[in-house]
Amino acid sequence: MNACPVWRRSSYSTGANNCVESARSGPDALVVRDSKEARRPPLSFSGSAWSCFLSALREREPVRCPVG
């Protein structure tokens, strides 16, 4: 993971600090964290797994993404 990731918040986030933040952690990887628990280790995803997840959300379909 990058030493100092640049965390991004959703434009839908409110100022109440209750959102999910994401950051690039490599050429084809990213990390996700809960802004309320920023000191906890983030979850890591490959770029393709994250794209699959977002696509499933947009289509309002069950997430059926390959693992690995």
UniProtKB/TrEMBL annotation:
Domain (DUF397): residue spans on this chain: 6-58
Lineage top rank: taxon: Bacteria
Pfam families recorded: DUF397
Protein name: DUF397 domain-containing protein
The species this protein was found in: Streptomyces corynorhini
